[in-house]
Amino acid sequence: MAKLYLPDYKNCYVNMIASVAKAFHVETGHNTLDAVDKILKRKTKNIVVMLLDGMSKAVLERNLPEDCFLRKNVLTDITAVFPTTTTAGTMSYKTGLTPIEHGWMSLFLYLKDVGCSVNLYLNTDAYSKKPLTKPHIADDVLGFSNIFEHIQEKSKGKVKAYGVSIQEARDLFGNITQITYDTFHEMCENVKTLCSLDGQKVIYAYHNHPDNTMHKFGPYSEETSKLLIEFDAEIENLAKNCPNTTFLICADHGQSYVDKVFDLTDFPDLDDTLLMPPTGGPRAFCVFVKKGRDKEFKKLVKKYLGDEFVLFSRKQVLDMKLFGTGTPHPKVDGFLGDYWIVSTGKSNLAYTTLYHLPTSQPLGAHGGLTKEEMMLSLIAYKNTKKD
Predict the structure, then answer these.
(1) How far is it, in rounded angstroms, from Cα 283 to Cα 82?
(2) CATH assignment at residue 179
(3) Which domain holds residue 61?
(4) Mean pLDDT, rounded, of the chain
């Protein structure tokens, strides 16, 4: 079995957000990062938290030269949360909480309240892909508490909070001003404009690349390298033209190269031990097992999946605090499952309608416990020029 890289909930982006919140006298219940606290101690008019989806330590180091703007300004290395997915990660950025606390624990979860497996962000049935009838079921069931809104409220409006994202990632929740854009250049221009406005601000900016590019072409492809070189130049130009502004730039996860897929429906005896189709994501399946068939299930997982995956019981993930520290969300008990099958290498999981054909699998994927997916570089840049 490959070495497991586990989240460090004292040194991850939950702690970075705790530092940002602390700078505005808001508590998240999590410890802060000393390195970020020191940077934020000398206040600037603007703090920009920029999340570039999938831009891990390995992605940075293998696609960009050492003397580029982003790599020259790496402050420290931190980890992602588990699972290393966009849903769990972005919700930790936006709430300042760990996945066990906010409950948005993976791409797809079985929600007892509605009796089906739900794509949490898209608000669709995980298997039929059909839109669900309620406005947003995950928000109804799990709720959402925006840390940037709390900062704005704590200041009694003296600090303005903004969200800048593509339309698909625009939050339906929270009372902060939201701006959408089409291109990365537009995102940077929007951030620049906000920073130029009078008054103190905290800005959360999200972009869905390089993740989408890496899914299609691979994390270390020519296409990914070209994109990141463009991003590096755009961000350097932005940061150097936003006086009195502190930038904190990081990712939600990285990616591993994928060259093999295990479809659980190819193993009828293993599939027969499952109470229902799995949820989770392609590198971290959450499964419910039929009563009395645990031993058979574990034996068959070992037989068919070998050392490509690690199997954690419900008790193990809770004891290990794999999904984080803090008070578990009250709904977690209903969708945590009996076991989690987690990738530790270059293989994905599939299950017919959820991830239909191996040929549809991406070249780059995330959700597992590899170094490439877990380890991130936190970039910090402070422009102390007065505006």
Answers:
(1) 11
(2) 3.40.720.10
(3) 13-97+145-255+371-383
(4) 93
pTM above 0.85, yes or no: yes
> What secondary structure does DSSP assign to 336-373, as a single string?
S-SEEEEE-SSEEEE-TTTS--GGGS-SEE-SS--HHH
- Give the residue among 291, 285, 268 at the shortest CA–CA distance from 342: 285
Residue 67 and residue 149 in one domain? yes
116-119 vs 124-125, strand pairing mode = antiparallel
Identity at 6, one-letter amino acid code: L
Tokens 């999938």, located at residue: 54
Q: What is the 3-state secondary structure (H, E, C) of 69-128?
A: HHHHCEEEEEECCCCCCHHHHHHHHHHCCCHHHHCCCCCEEEECCCCEEEECCCCEECCC
Query: Could you give the count of Cα atoms lying within 13 Å of 25 in the half-sphere of its Cβ?
Result: 7
- Closest Cα to residue 348, out of 364, 337, 336? 364
Q: Which amino acid, residue 222?
A: E
pLDDT digits (tens, 9 = 90+) for 289-344: 999 999 999 999 999 998 889 999 999 999 999 999 999 999 999 999 999 999 99
Whether 61 is in a domain gets the answer yes
Tell me whether residue 120 is in a domain. Answer: no
DSSP count for the chain of H helices, then E strands: 16, 18
Q: Is the peptide bond before 65 cis (omega within 30 degrees of 0)?
A: no
> 5 lies in a domain?
no
For residue 103, is it within any domain?
no
Please give the tally of structural domains in the chain. 2
Q: How far apart are CA 140 and CA 331, in angstroms?
A: 11
Q: Decide if 144 contacts 135 (C-beta within 8 A).
A: no
Whether 245 and 307 share a structural domain: no
Identity of the amino acid at 334: G
Give yes or no for residue 359 having a pLDDT over 50. no
Q: At 226, list the tokens.
A: 């070209």
